[in-house]
Task: structure prediction
Amino acid sequence: MLYITSVNGKDFSVEILDDHHVKVDDQIFEVDFMSIANQPVFSLIISGKSFEAYVYPGEDDYQVLLQGRSYSVKVEDEREKRLQKAGGSTVSQSSEYHLKSPMPGMVVSLPVAEGQPVTKGQVLVILESMKMQNELKSPRDGTLARVRVKPGDNVEQRQPLLSVV
Result:
């Protein structure tokens, strides 16, 4: 099965060849991917190099923490991706977008203020989780309409943090 995987907006073609081989674009990798004790923690070995990944499901994507960096990952089969492209973008440019916490953690800072214009990719919230700071970014241009948290607040996974209109 062929998948189109978007990582922070960049698309990759991913084909699962068998239980231990994956083709990403034109490169084949030997992989071992295993959940650790039914937690959102995964052991990932790629061509002999070991990684630990934290994977949190969102509404229509995953938030992945790998080597101290946060990635927004969306996985679609090739046919689904073609249908979506024909139908348009998934993040509406006209309705309110609610940024939700991809994981439990603590709000470290909010580098933007309510009412401030924001651009796609701009950092809206810095969230600390598992001793790592993660930048949560705007998926589109707009205005920061409503801030529901402040620095120092502890938040739960999927808790609304702010809105962009």
Summary: The longest strand covers residues 10-18. The chain has a mean pLDDT of 84. Helices lie at 78-87. The two ends are 37 Å apart (CA to CA).
